[in-house]
Every structure is written in C-alpha cells, then in structure tokens.
Design brief:
- The termini are far apart.
- By secondary structure, the chain is mainly beta.
- The chain is built from 6 helices and 44 strands.
- Helix content is 6%, strand content 63%.
C-alpha cells in the first residue's frame, strides 16, 4: 500500500514539473469590420516552418493551445475569404502564457453573396482533367445546365438534349462526382445554370473512376453553401420561343454550431416543339412529323452535415425528382407515286405518364491528423418509376377516299433500383507520394412491363415482361509521385461484372459474367512554370443500357419501329492522350491529341422490317460491329485582350473508323440487300465566346458556333451553325444579376441529313433554337464561409467509386 502511495506521489510530482515547464497560447479571433467572432478558423503553431500544434476556434472564436515547450514560435491564423495572419509568440520561464487576439481583414475579392461567381469563365488543365470554372458569361447562356453545355469546348448537345464529348455520345455524366438514376438529358434541364461552380472534362479518367464512358466523363460540380446563419439564393427565368417556358430554383442554407442544414427546390415547365420532314426518294414518299412535349419537372433536395469534431463529419441528403408530361406526335405520310393500292397515313400519337426518382445518401468522412489523409464511406439507394400510357390513332386513306381507322393503347411500366456502397482511402505517404485505394458494390434491378392493344400484333406478343439486372463489384488502387519537374500516377481497377436478362419469364434469357482489369497511367512534365506536357493511358468500357437491350417497342411511327438487342455485348476502349498547357501573361492555351482503339463497337442499325410485305417499314435497333479506331485533337484559348474585352475560342476534331452491315436498295429486284460498309466519320466543331464589359455593372456577350458535316455509316449529316448575343447587368451590391440572351439570332440551327441506306432519303428536323431568355438571380443572407466545414464538404465529393446525385 505504501508503495502505491509513493508511486502516485511520484507521478504527481513529475506531472507538475512537466506542466511547469510548458506554456499555453490562447486568444480570440474576430472580424475587423464588425468584431464578430470567427468560428472554425485554423490556428497553427510552427517551429522553423513545421507545425507542432494547432486547433480550430470554437463557436465564440476562442482557442487554447496547451503543453507547448518554452521557446519562440510562429503563429499562423487562416480563414477562407480573409487575409492570413502571421505573428510571433515567445514562451519562457518568466512568461509561460501568451494571449493572441487578432482581427482578420477580409480579402478584397470577398463578396457577401452566397454563390461567388467569377465574371468570366476560366479553363485549367490538371493531371487527369480539364476544369472550366463557370463564370457569369456562361450562366447567361440560359436557364439550365443543358443550355450552357454547348458553350463548353469539346462538348456538343443535340436537339434532344443528349451530350457528346469529342464527337462521341458514349460519355458518362456525373453530378458532384456521383452518377444519377435520372436520364442525363432530363437531369441537366432541371439543374439551374447559376448552381454550377465548375465543369470537369475527364477525357481519359484514371482507375479511381468507374470505367463506363468511352469518350470520358463530364463531372458537373455544384456550388456548396456552408455559410453561417440563414442564407440562400433564388434564380428564375423565362424562355420565349413558340410559347413561353419557365424555370425557377430556390437554395436555402442554415448553419448553426456543428450542424448545417441545406435544401433546394427547382422547377421548370413549358411546351417544347419540334418538327421533321423526311422524303423517301425512290418511292416518292413524303413523311411529316409535328412533335410537342408539355413537361413539368420538379427537383427537391434536403440534407444536413453534422461536424462530429474536427476530424469526423456525417452527412445525409435525399433527392426527390418528379416529372410529368404529355408528348404528342402527329405523323402525316403521303405517297405520291400514283399507285392505286397505296394508302396515305395520318397518325395521332399521345404519350403520357409520370416519372419519379427518390435518392437517399448517407456519407461519413474521417480526416486524419496528417494533411490530405482521409477515409470516406458512402451508401446510396435510388428508386425510379416511369409509367407511359400511349394512345395511337391511325387513319389510312386510299385514293378512292376509303378510310380505315385503327385506335389502340400501349402501356409501359419501368422500375429501376440502384444500391451503391463504396469506401475511398487517400494517404499522402510523404509530401511527394500519394496512395489511393477504394472498393465499391453496385447492384441494379430493373423490370419493364409492356402491354399493347395493337390488333396488328400477335396475341402472344401483346403482353411482355423484361428483367435486366446487373451486379458490379470493384476495387482500385492508384500510386503517384511528384518530383521537381516530373510527376506520375499509375493505377488499376479490378471489376467483377454480371448481367442477367429475362424476357417473358424464361422465354428468352441472356447472361454475361466476366472479370476484367482497367489500368491507367499518367505522366506529367513541367518544362517550366508556364509550359506543361502530359501523357496518359486508360482502358474503359461502354455497357449496353436497358433501352439498348430490351426487345420491346421503345417508340413507333407508321414507318419506323425501335427495338433493343438482348444479346448486345459491351464495347471496350483503350485510349492514349497527350495534352499541352501554356500559361500566358493574360490567359492560357490548352491543346490535346488522342487515339482510341475500340473493340465490339455498339452502333445503331436501320434495316427493312422483316414482318412488313409493303417494303416501306423500317426497324431501328442496335448491334456490335467489329473493332474500330478513333483519333482527334482539341485546342482552346482563354485570353484577355483588354481590361474590357476577353475571348475564349476553341476548336475540336474527331475521326472514327466505322464498319458494319447496312441495307441498300437493289434497283433490279426492288429489294434492300445487306452488305458490309466501312466509312471514316470525321467531326469538326468551332466555338468563339467573346465578352465585353464597358462598365463594372454592364457586360455583353457574343457567341458563335459551327459544326461541320459528318459522313456516318448510314447517312450524311449536314453542317450546323448559329450566333447568340447576350447582356448582363449587376445591381444591389452584386447580390442581383439580370441577364438577357438571344439564342440563334439568324435561326440557322437545323438538323438535316441525306442517305441511301436502307433507302434513298433526305430529311430535316428543326426545334425552337431561336429563343430569348430573360433571367434573374438574387443572393440573400449573410455570414462567412466556415473554413473547416467548407473544406470537409468540398473534400467529400466522391471522385472515385460511386454514390449518387
């Protein structure tokens, strides 16, 4: 017992002596302009440039750092939006405590708005991606993300809103690093342009990313609000075309203590019009289409971030999307060859039905003491339901004016469930070496029920059920090092993929199960501070989608019916790319070249309908072609000519060798016969974005676009071009922006084509490309961005495994 008392006394003496030989630094951090306390500011104690201790200020701006050796130190205080404070602290036997009260001064560029948007967009080439920081010149382009994508170098948007990158539509779209269960063309129309912070073009992604997307990844990064107190922003706009279309969104945020609540709601609605005219030359058949889509889309997001402590954050959000609409397709087909047995056809088609998607996301992030050392866990579940009720009223009129009227209904019910669990780990082994690793499980369950009352369809085919399920398990590792002028990163992704499809409960099945590796490598060399070269390689895959595989009617007109191919195989791509970036005194220029090798290329087919004896009907489908190759380049410039005038010109070119089977009309027999055809498809695009700023509040925009003609395996697409003009005015101390844009001033954007496969035909489609957009954005609320909280939320963007928007 005496021994225990002696030991306790000895330990107490040692602890007291140790405490007497250490010192304490404490203080309070506040804002210079209003003396308001700054919470979560970073306070670091350094000895000869090395951090020996550090904390973050509490909610009252106070901090205390204990157990410091008695000596001289440098103290650094940092907080985003404020100038860094650097001072000195001396602890000695005569002065074992020091008080440091600092008032930080705001940076001159700090704005009081919620979303700090640059005046003009900038472009930066990083190790594995091209980053476009979205400025007010791009947000003036239109109401939604879809409206501004066509202004981005190397990106094209067709009349249906579908994206392509470097001339290829096999591109994966991510929102904040996460895929979506919503069709990208629909999703981008619902994201307000003012909510976009950056757009990343990852043309040769590393093994850290899921390998889908032959041409790469487009990652759209949204503004993240982490301000204290209550704040938000509102944006709304009207697009005037044939009829007016409306959009609006509201972002709200409330930060108190360690909890941050956020939510946003967006809506866009209106009627969109398209029209088409196709002429079949060999039979003198004239087909006209008049299409209208009355859509009403809603998107809600509610969530919270909980800062458990300085090293652990828990986040949750739910995303709810609902879309309702009515699509009407009027088809008028006239046969002008004088054959008394030929009928003219008029069809009135109506498509109705809601689409809903619910997404639920839970994420946990741990930040280790070492800078950049992180561990992320994320779970995600998404449930999508789409219902389509279709009505077809088809009238056929003979030359003798005999009318035959067929009316029937179709019903389609799609259900998709996606579950994702992933973990990502980043460890900077030292200041030059970084190791990253992760794993993911992605489970998709899809069912499609189809019912038709079409009397021309066999009874046994009027009801069908199609199941398409995929199980994907993957793991990746990347290793990178940086030297003075040279850096590299190598990695690989291991993936197990299994797909099961089942038509009509076992009537026709298809299974595919394989294991593969997706390696990647990056080499970067800095010639000097202003010139950077990069060489990269990656292997990627494009897997068939549900729409491409289901052997059920996707859409139908009197002359064309679309079906999927249940036995469609994935296509694999090996890509090599070289990029060059030069920093200029008033801007920068980036250039890149790429070469791809494609195995089992997936392409569309257009062939005569084998069940039609008249020789007029065609079937639109998909098939795998033989191996193919592709190459191309892109160049873009971001340059400030004067203080009030800057330009962003860009060009891109891509070429792909296509090989496949097409059908061509034999004049002797009058039949369409198959034969193999090889063609080199080349695409050229040019853009010029020019911004003029005569005053601090007023600016003007001039945008030009040109897309060259393209020779495809089944048709030739003609050139397209347009010119847009716009203006923006800022008021209320930069809190409000009013913008106006006149799109396609000369109404020149038309999609036209001609070809001889499977029949000689020519056609043109037009849409409401000539529009006037008027938009307003207003930021409200106050508070300053919390440094640690903001950093954790930015870092929580999953760049690798999965997750969902």
């Amino acid at each position: 017992m005496k021994l225990k008392l002696f030991l306790f006394a000895l330990l107490a003496v040692i602890a007291t002596a140790q405490a007497q030989n250490t010192g304490t630094v404490s203080g309070k951090i506040s804002e210079k302009s209003n003396n308001a306390p700054i919470s979560y500011a970073t306070v670091s104690i350094k000895d000869n440039g090395k951090v020996v201790s550090g904390v973050n200020t509490d909610d009252n701006g106070d901090f205390t750092i204990k157990n410091l050796a008695l000596k001289s130190y440098t103290i650094e205080i940092q907080y985003i939006g404020f100038r860094k404070y650097i001072g000195s602290v001396i602890l000695s036997d005569s002065k074992k405590t020091a008080t440091v009260n600092v008032s930080l001064e705001e940076e001159a560029t700090q704005l009081k708005g919620v979303n700090i948007v640059a005046e003009r967009s900038t472009m930066e080439q990083k190790i594995d991606r091209k980053v476009i920081t979205v400025g007010k010149d791009l947000t003036t382009a239109g109401a939604s993300a879809s409206d501004i994508m066509s202004n981005i170098p190397s990106v094209n948007v067709d009349q249906d809103g579908k994206l392509s990158l470097r001339g290829n539509d096999n591109v994966r779209v991510l929102i904040d690093g996460r895929p979506s269960n919503i069709d990208p063309a629909q999703l981008l129309k619902q994201i307000p342009s003012t909510s976009i912070k950056k757009i990343e073009l990852i043309t040769n992604p590393s093994a850290k990313y899921n390998p889908e997307g032959m041409s790469g990844i487009i990652n759209i990064i949204l503004h993240k609000n982490a301000n204290t107190g209550f704040n938000g922003s509102y944006s709304g706009g009207i697009t005037f075309g044939k009829t007016a279309k409306y959009n609006q969104s509201l972002d709200l945020n409330y930060k108190t203590g360690k909890v941050n609540f956020f939510g946003n709601a967006g809506q866009n609605f209106g009627t969109y019009y398209n029209e088409g005219h196709i002429v079949r030359l060999d039979q003198d058949v004239d087909q006209k289409l008049d299409i209208s889509n009355d859509n009403d889309n809603y998107l809600y997001k509610v969530g919270m971030d909980y800062l458990i402590n300085d090293h652990n954050t828990l986040s949750f959000y739910t995303n709810q999307n609902k879309s309702t609409g009515t699509g009407i397709v009027l088809t008028d087909i006239n046969y002008n060859n004088g054959d008394p047995d030929i009928l003219n056809i008029y069809q009135d088609s109506k498509y109705q039905g809601p689409s809903t998607t619910g997404t639920y996301n839970l994420a946990y992030k741990h930040i280790f003491k070492k800078e950049g050392h992180t561990l992320d866990f994320e779970g995600n579940y998404s449930d999508t339901k789409e219902i389509q009720n279709s009505n077809f009223d088809t009238q056929t009129t003979s030359p003798a004016n005999t009318v035959n009227d067929i009316v029937y209904n179709d019903f389609i019910n799609d259900k998709r469930k996606l579950s994702t669990i992933n973990v990502d780990y980043v460890n900077p082994l030292n200041d030059k070496t970084t190791l990253e690793a992760g794993a993911e499980a992605r489970i998709t369950r899809t069912t499609n029920d189809y019912t038709t009352e079409n009397p021309l369809v066999a009874t046994e085919d009027q009801i069908s059920n199609y199941i398409y399920d995929t199980d994907i398990y993957s793991a990746y590792v990347t290793f990178g090092q940086k030297f003075k002028k040279f850096s590299y990163q190598v990695g690989t992704r291991f993936e197990s993929y299994k797909v099961t499809s089942n038509l009509n409960y076992g009537y026709k099945t298809f299974n595919d199960d394989y294991i593969t590796l997706y390696p990647s490598a990056y080499l970067t060399y800095n010639l000097n501070e202003k010139n950077v070269l990069q060489l990269s390689y990656s292997r990627r895959v494009d897997r068939p989608s549900l729409e491409q595989t289901k052997p059920i009617r996707e859409f139908s007109t009197p002359l064309v019916t679309s079906y999927g191919n249940q036995e469609l195989r994935p296509q694999f791509t090996n890509s090599v790319e070289m990029n060059y970036t030069k920093t200029l005194e008033k801007g920068s220029v980036t250039a890149g070249v790429f070469v791809r090798r494609i195995n089992d290329q997936i392409s569309r087919t257009l062939s005569p309908d084998p069940n039609d004896d008249s020789g007029y009907k065609q079937v639109l489908g998909f098939t795998n072609y033989d191996n193919s190759s592709s190459y191309g380049f892109d160049v873009s410039l971001n340059y400030k000519l004067t203080k009030w005038w800057d330009i962003q010109p860009s060009i891109d070119f891509s070429s792909i060798k296509q090989h496949g089977v097409v059908f061509q009309l034999d004049p002797a027999s009058g039949e369409s016969l198959p034969y193999e055809r090889t063609v080199t498809t080349s695409a050229f695009n040019a853009r010029m974005n020019s911004n003029f700023k005569p005053t601090k509040r007023l600016s003007f925009l001039l945008f030009g676009f040109y897309r060259g003609g393209v020779e495809e395996i089944q048709q030739h697409r003609n050139e397209m071009y347009k010119i847009d003009i716009g203006s923006r005015y800022t008021l209320l101390d930069n809190k409000m922006n009013i913008s106006v844009r006149f799109n396609d001033v000369f109404n020149t954007m038309k999609f036209s084509f001609d070809g001889i496969y499977p029949y000689p035909q020519t056609g043109q489609f037009s849409w409401e490309s000539q529009t006037v957009y008027v938009g307003l954005t207003y930021n409200f609320g106050g508070g300053k961005i919390k440094n640690l909280q903001r950093k954790q939320r930015e870092d929580n963007t999953n760049k690798g495994g999965g997750g969902m928007f």
